[in-house]
Structures
1.
Amino acid sequence: MIKVSLISLGCAKNLVDSEIMVGHLHQAGMQVISDAAKAEVVIVNTCSFIDSSKEESISHILEVHQNRGMTKRRKEQKLIVAGCMAQRFSKDLSTSLHDEVDAFIGLDQVTKVAPIIESLFASERAKNAAPLSFIEGKSTYIPDYDTPRFRLTPKHFAYIKIAEGCNHPCTFCIIPQIRGRHRSRTVASVVAEARQLVKEGVKELNLISQDTTFFGMDTWDQRPNPRTPVDSTRGTALTTLLRQLNVIEGDFWIRLLYTHPAHWSDELIRTIAECPKVARYIDIPLQHISDRMLGLMQRETSGTYIRDLLQRIRTGIPGIAIRTTFIVGFPGETEADVDELCQFIKETRFERLGVFKYSQEDGTRAAKMNDQITPKQKDARWHRTMALQRDIAHEVSKGYVGRKLRVLVDEPGVARGEADAPDIDGRVYVPITLPPGSFASVRITGYEDYDLLALPVGQMPSTRKVAKQAQ
């Protein structure tokens, strides 16, 4: 039995790819272990979205290779590089990592990983031979509900990839070149997977893709230009999906991640409001608010459109928590653009917000633009926007004190509310052991930065603790 260890890097979408690989390895009778030192094969599922993710991927690859020289047994260990970086740079990496890597596999080989491993052991690699590459053209694969998969998340939450690829023309992004054109699963396929996960005890279904709001739109033959914002009154496959997921029997949350602002509609807002199992939380990366910057980024939206959309969302879905991300330091960004962004953040008061420093990615149109911003300027703008958001987050957290909140327990003493997605948002700390994977009702007693402090409903803290936590 071949022992395989897998290192998964990057986003939740990459994690699903890792889960599919592990599922196929198990199906082939291979043993997946966490200890790379005892494995005969190590797979590094890489990310290459921005420079820091590429550096992390290279670091893990080199670490695995260096550790192979520690014992005779590990010298025979095979190293496979998978994922976005392999898909994007396999030709270049074959030269730069000539001696370190045995094979590169891309996004469409996640279901073929077992026979690829068997082929590596079937023939000896010739001395000085280049690593094998199993990558064939642009990615076209899309998982289905019956795809063998072994979840790497805790038992109580899961990610469901409802689509793959992206059709958006954002000038800073390389993802469409890596993962190909947008291609949606069917509503029936996603619902079947969700039903099975709920049967297995999953309490939170996180819907993901490069753009979840574009789900099903790639099949609209009558749409003359799929890049224009949708008719705000029209229903979409996503609204159909949410309504069908909402009627599945069981007690669970449905969380909507990675929504593009150009494809929101009034029907989607209404659907979320009318579906109690859909978490009062949305993830909607806006990237900027300045019309000039949105134009340079080719974000297909305007500042006026964004402001109006957010107002409609907050009016139509009472209690909604909005998470967004912005990019600072994009080529040509001026201090006036940053001033407008900061004013917008102050006015809108996002419940959750992250800021990225622009990364000059080879192969993107933005990388060739004039007026690139210096690293020092990027750092200053990042610190300015994040400091502003820290003050807002402090006020948002303070507003929770005294409120009753339904939370999902992740581990003893640690839970999350509807406003907190796994791994990216805050936590709710409860100093009482509650069963992991269960829902609980708590009362918020205090906060620390982005996290909340709580006690089960009906239990009161001491006077001294209340004074300290509410400071």
2.
Amino acid sequence: MLRYQENNELHLDFHGTTNTTLNYIAEKFGVDALKMLLRKTGRDVYRSIREKLAAGDASELVEHLNWFFYREKGKYQLTVSGNEITLEVFECPAIRHLKTLGLEVSEFACLQTSEVNAGMCEGTPWKSEVRVLEPGHCIQTFRKED
């Protein structure tokens, strides 16, 4: 079962706060500090996902990706085959909402995704990669390495 399956009212404005926070941390403490914080978030906040990945079970990661993109009405395709999980995001719900708010999307928005994903995979046989095809459209790949 998904550890953080929020079912209450959805407040998308947290994307605006996160966007501003990414910029603040990078400007105040540097990009390396931001990367460290984001990776720690992936490692610690999503600990149960990381622990299951370490044990060879990717089910919570798949459920997490599907639940949050579904809940935020993201346009995406999730494919699971063997030792690879691919999430193609056609329209990022965070970027869509930031544009709705009239905010400029942080240059660190996709870094956030790649570092949090890397943190979830840290210490496991899984590796992650984020390929940005255009703003709001990316392919996130999780691959189990033997």
3.
Amino acid sequence: MFVADDSVIGELADVADTLDPAVEQIAVGDGVVYWQVEKGETIGSIFSKKIGASRFKAVTTNRNLRTLRKLV
């Protein structure tokens, strides 16, 4: 997930302790939050619910690995 606001990265990273590592994991990078989620669990996952908040929509965007490979 690409994030245009550094304060949002911190807020999103705060949810890391509540995630089930068997289902999903996140890691913070420079302007990004890396998110790995079990196939089929994306919509109902804790992190998905967090990033779905309307206040994040203007400063975040998600791209999967297939899309990133096409861009590179």
4.
Amino acid sequence: MVNPSPKTVSMLTTALDVEAAFYDALGRADAQAVMALWAEDEEIVCVHPGGPRLIGYDLVYNAWKEVLANGGLHIRVLSRSMMSNLSSAVHHVVEQVIVRENGKDHLVNVAATHVFFKTPTGWRLVAHHASPAGQEAAQLTHAVLRSLH
């Protein structure tokens, strides 16, 4: 089976649809499916925690292939803040990532910002920037969620 390219992936009608598909593809360690969600633009930008700023489709794709080479990323979104208009959206999420190291699972908190543009082929990711969030972010998120219930 050939994975979809950005030109053939089904039209995603919201930025939230793209984000959900992004996390699904990461969980399956499918770098091609991840890239099918990105805009076909040489100005796309990706920054992984502690990594350099990567600009351009090829650099971003190669980085995702490297990240996913050891298997899928299991990510749970702890909180999400969204801003949008008719043609762009920005989501800031606090993620809890399960990292397997020496046979043990560790939880790592990550703050990520996703920027989406509406294109002729639907909503697409144009920027992903992630950095360590620390335990405080998770504790604050859990406290806020508890106060809402």
